[in-house]
Amino acid sequence: MAEIVFLLLAGIAAGALNAAGGGGTFLALPALVAAGLPPVTANAASTVALVPGAVVGAWVYRREVVPVGVTSTTALTVTSMVGGAIGAGLLLALPSESFDVAVPWLLAFATVVLTFGRRLSTLLRNAAGRTLRLGPRPILIGQFVLAMYGGYFGGAVGILMMALWGVGLGLDVAKSNPMRVRQLSAVYATATVLFLVASDVLAHPLPLLAMLVGGVAGGYGGAHLVRRLPPGILRGTILVTAVTMTILYFLRG
Questions:
Q1: What share of the chain is helix, strand, coil (3-state, %, to 5)?
Q2: 122: pLDDT strictly greater than 90
Q3: What is the pTM for the complete model shown?
């Protein structure tokens, strides 16, 4: 019972972080591994569990979505879905030992992106002296690569999306957050279909259900909470979580 309550709370926190700015993977994945799931299964289960929360968050933001430049929102969403499916396929096709070794480094990479991504985006934009104004094709290519990463692992993929849109189009971070949530939903949705069909996530129904229920509650609450809390508090919470989990995984390895 205590384990289920722990996963429920972790799901709430992970769903809220994803809705507020990203970083839910840093809580969901370690919590499921601590509950006894193998790392690859835990990674797949965290995606399956968090997708309803992402969809709920996208619904809350539905009237605030701003297009990514002149790129078709439909084309961007389809690209996210296809890339997410391919990334999920790679997770299932590659040896599980490869993922076990890669997890600390993936977490470290995502932590660096969370810490310096926006600052680097600003530096690149200032160095260029102007906004690059990328056309739809390079935006879709970049989105496809990020969606594959999101389907395979997903840590900080939303931050990477906003960095791409910020550097390439000068899109404001706050205005792009609703679109980030929508694209995360698209990546997770197709990855979830593949994981449900081809992985063993359904062999662990109680941990999955606890994380899923928590993720939905957190996704709904987080999307509303982000409008009320100072951005610095949310960002600081995400960074502390990311750094802590990355260190713990390196120590575990």
A1: 80, 0, 20
A2: no
A3: 0.82
